[in-house]
Amino acid sequence: MVGSGHRGAQCPNKHMCEDAMDHATQVHLIERVFDMIDRRTTEMDPTEYRNPVSRYTDPERYKREVEVIFRRNPIIVAHGSELPKPGDYKTLDVTGIPILLVRTQDGHVNAFLNVCRHRGTKLVWEECGSHKRSFVCPYHAWTYGTDGKLVGVPAAEGFPNMKREEMGLKQLHCTERFGFVFVQADPTAPKVDVDAWLGPMAHELEHIGTADYVVWRPAQLEKKTNWKLALDTFLENYHTRRTHTKTIWPVFMDNTAGFDRLSPHARVVLPKRSIPEIRDQDRSTWNLRDHSTVLYTIFPNLMLAVLPDHCAIFQAWPDGIDNCKLPAYTLVPPKYLNSKTAEDIWSKSMHVVFDVTEEDSDRSEAIQAGLNSGANDHLVFGRYEQALAWFHQEVEAMLNGDADWVRYAEAAE
């Protein structure tokens, strides 16, 4: 579940708020909310969904999730604003794969395995940095350019048969779209066309304007829970009344949400209690972002919460079958980055967001312990928890080979 954004404060970037989603879509979604209010219900699937507990506890399945889903898919690993200038770089670990990102002189972002080709040590140890034209291995000083080419070998006479053109850094498929950097961590994976992969999400991200935002105040949590459980808590608001009684329950409507499957991704509209106030206003003035949190799942592991004047990003990275890392950051309009008023608004909003995340994480850790106990052999998702069912169905499709990899790969050629 996600935070509320500012409460009654003036949006410091009203133009961006209004353009965050095409207006026809906003009107359609708001009308769906009003229909739910009138019928005193929410959007529901025809039946419940039974999710086997083994999907959270089976070690062999976990290995396949890492290999198939996290290493072959284009996964968001950074936001472009973290690498604003040529020579800026960032390192990270993607399910045990060390990765180096660097922005080149021509403005593109390259992704490499962060491994020296000589003796295999980690090449770059710093988490991030700037103004790099080359990377020097701390072990034997082999040197690589930002294009990955091997450009320097001390005492090169010791390697008379080495072909330098074959010893550059191992490059990964990398694409920067809508402000996000997508990487496929498996260098043997066929290249996937990111626009084809995003499908309808591409249109949504274009209108949200994520390319025009910058990262503000990144942080990270670590929780003793399966990565999928960490995401499950975001995909329904059935739990809000009980779990978030003192945080966001007073702001959001009870168990009322609009769900859209943008396979393999999803959109969830979580309306606030204020939304009936605009019902009799001219539809041309309706602004969904002021009266709801729009939550997107970008498969497999990123949650994008669209708040009134900024966005909140959460990711769940598997770090063992019952442990995960949860990096999070705020995306804000750069024009107002140093505004004290705006900073106060964002700080208060993100304080709420992290409080809510901690509440959800407590539930997730307790669920993981319960699953490991053997008390249940499956979990039941209610008809109004349909986004959870969709998410797990997408995971199953990937693992079973039912996802259309050929179409995605061919689109890239």
From TrEMBL:
Its cofactor is Fe cation. This is (2Fe-2S) ferredoxin. Residues 75-183 form the Rieske domain. It comes from Tistrella bauzanensis. Signal peptide: none annotated. Keywords: 2Fe-2S, Iron, Iron-sulfur, Metal-binding, Oxidoreductase. The keyword Flavoprotein does not apply. Pfam families: Rieske, Ring_hydroxyl_A. InterPro entries: Rieske_2Fe-2S (IPR017941), Rieske_2Fe-2S_sf (IPR036922), Ring_hydroxy_dOase_asu_C_dom (IPR015879), Rng_hydr_dOase-A (IPR001663).
